[in-house]
Amino acid sequence: MLRVHFTAEDFARIRFAPRPAPLQELHAALTTAVTQRGGPLFAPWRGRILRSLPAASGPLADLVPAGRPPSFLDVLGDTMADGFEQLRATSPGLVRAELERVYGAVPPPRWIRGLHAGDEAAWRTPQRAQQAAFETVLAPVWSVVQDLHREEFTRYALTVAEYGVAAALTGLAPGSRLHEGVWEWPGAAPNRDVCLNGRGLVLLPTFHHPAGPLLQDTPGHSAALAYPAGPGLPPTAGGAVVSSEALAAILGRTRLDALRLLAKPHTTTSLANALHVSNATASSHAAALRSAGMATTTRAGRSVTHQRTALGTLVAGAWPPYFTTRRSQRSPLR
């Protein structure tokens, strides 16, 4: 069981990663591929990934002897370049301690010894390997991962707004509970207690890790918890797994169309014309979106202008092409 201990300050410092972290998602995907997590449903994906990994990604295996990766690999940069920069900024002491932990008395490869010694040239080896693996494993589906992350961000934000932080946290992990400041994840292995002590927690959904949380707990930094999200299978290049039809089932078709139209400012009349509804109906949809924090209304004299908020954009995603199409269809180291 994983137990995450919160203080009042930690609850105030919980945040949701605004974008997926490429290196974290890559490590989750590679962990799933080589450990055979996910069972037979993952077998086709796993076989395809392992067959297609280029030789240039080989050094990554050197970093995970016996399946024990060093903690400094898990960084939350928004891009690969950001991730590499954060990785390289790891304190030399932590790098040495983690490499000694994962290798123990086993003789490491030469380039690993270079990392341990702080050799700048040695850092180019994992960077090249990670980039090669990313291009094969994640680049073809990265736009899908971004869409899924946006949807998960939105779901979390709306749950916090309507039901509170406790419900949002436990909703990330079915079967978990928050009791007296301790978030308990039954079944998470190994048994572990993490005390945040005011550092806060960053929540990061991952779409390539089918079970259990991946928790990064670096002293002096906010803890970061990657949790399995999405449809339960790795995304494919065919498009986002969560369809616009599912979103329409929640908001209603016309209200979803209104939200997408409000990417640009609309008066009530222009919104009604675009939706082919009455002004009263358009005003009602705008009011519902406004009450949910997804749109704003500005009045200037007798004119009223509606436009969606940042939350509304996260909910809507990048949908204008779909909207247009649908409307046209309808009409040793030491």
TrEMBL record:
Coiled coil: none annotated. It comes from the Bacteria. Residues 245-320 form the HTH arsR-type domain. Keywords: DNA-binding, Transcription, Transcription regulation. This is Transcriptional regulator. It comes from Streptomyces rubradiris (Streptomyces achromogenes subsp. rubradiris). The lineage of its organism: Bacteria, Bacillati, Actinomycetota, Actinomycetes, Kitasatosporales.
